[in-house]
Amino acid sequence: xxAKITASKSNAIGKIDRRIYxxxxxxxxxxxxxxIYEPTHESADDKGFRGDxxxxxxxxxxxxxxxxxxxxxxxxxxxxxxxxRAKRPRKLDLAWLSVESNEVGIDEFQEWARRAGTEVMMAxxxxxxxxxxxxxxxxxxxxxxxxxYANLRRQNGFEEPFGIKLWCLGNEMDGDxxxxxxxxxxxxxxxxxxxKVLKWVDPSIELVACGSSDHHMxxxxxWERTVxxxxxxxxDYLSLHCYYGNYRGTEDFLARAExxxxxxxxxxxxxxxxxxxxxxxxxxxLSFDEWNVWYRTKDEExxxxxxxxxxxxxxxxxxxxxxxxxxxxxxxxxNNCDRVKIGCLAQLINVIAPIMTExxxxxxxxxxxxxYLYASMHGNGTVLRAECDCEGYKSSEGWDIPYLYTxxxxxEDAGEVVVFAVNRSLDTDLELEIELSDHxxxxxxxxxxxxxxxxxxxxxKEKELLLPTEREITATSPLxxxxxxxxxxxxx
Length: 492
Prior knowledge:
Layout: E1 2-7, E2 12-15, E3 22-24, H1 51-60, E4 64-67, E5 91-93, E6 98-100, H2 106-116, E7 119-124, H3 131-142, H4 148-155, E8 166-169, H5 184-201, E9 206-209, H6 222-231, E10 237-244, H7 250-254, H8 256-278, E11 285-293, H9 320-335, E12 340-346, E13 355-357, E14 363-365, H10 369-378, E15 382-384, E16 387-389, E17 392-394, E18 400-402, E19 404-411, E20 416-423, E21 430-436, E22 443-450, E23 469-471, E24 479-480, E25 484-491
Parallel strand pairs: 1-21, 3-4, 3-12, 4-7, 7-8, 8-9, 9-10, 10-11, 11-12
Antiparallel strand pairs: 1-16, 2-15, 5-6, 13-14, 15-19, 17-18, 19-20, 20-25, 21-24, 22-23, 22-25
């Protein structure tokens, strides 16, 4: 099978904001405890952070991490996680039916983020709480004033402010699973008032309002319109969340990237609709701050024993076909970089995560680690609109799905053009022709491949079966193996 990609500088989509390669750590299962924090571990540093997971996060180059939730944040009192650990309360976490020790809070997490070379994307509780607690939290984190919460931070050992610049106004408030779920009207009002006080305390911050927690929510569309009607003048981004699973076979599973793309474009069009309605010159962009493959361990907390501390929950064991879809989803974010400025792979460690750990033992890379790694390392610059000529198939919705899924990125600073490509054919290799009309003198210099014959193969602590392979460059038309992920780099 043959396919052709044509891309030109004159048909650019936009410049990538590196924050689309962000991630997420929630107080859920073993994400925090025994994930980033395990003071008895042999690799633990002076603050109790696991050195092995810290090294893997640094390897990924994660630019921003959303914290502390997620569903957890809708019942969370941020004050429980500051100051003297001996005085912190143990509390029931109703979101995940666990016990939260509060050994780690914003005091510790901002330090972990600093050591990991990442930024904090802080979420505030708009479930059981509201604007008052949010304005106290941002004063504690960011204020330099001689005032109660700024002084409390200093008393707790942090003279300098944390300087958190990205804030989420709650989490998934459209979902009836959420603690103190709200209607769009109720949420729009509280989000607006919270946005106002947060920016009064620190005008330099950016704010994310809750959009729909899934493309297929019955309220999708009307939720966005109502929330934006209230919040448009005060926020910078609207959030999107989605998770996909293999319910109808691998071909249909790999077509889910098209559903993600439609979700993005429909949400952006609603933002522009409200912009026009208000006669505003401001553009509200998108924060896709939860996305991943997740279906095997959904609702696991409902059957697990209740009220444990850091139980093993939602520990999805990713296989090779999951890595293929994650690669496609990253390309979808890249190809929508004109509107999507923030993305958070959910989550980072142990909980539906690219990094897994054993309590007291080792850490390893799941299959989805690698497409995420290479996107973060090489997916920087200006995305060019890729015109593809390729055979395809039909999805379960009747959509036309090309076998080739791709993104093309012109990184002028590095003097290279990077082509990410997944061959979604399950049985046929693909001979690829690439025409870069504005890049005369560029030639293929490297071809990195992720391929296993077994689509169900996984990486484990004993053996990582999926590892990147550097293909030998033997022809001007690279060959993409059946069901493979590829990164092609062209240089002058």
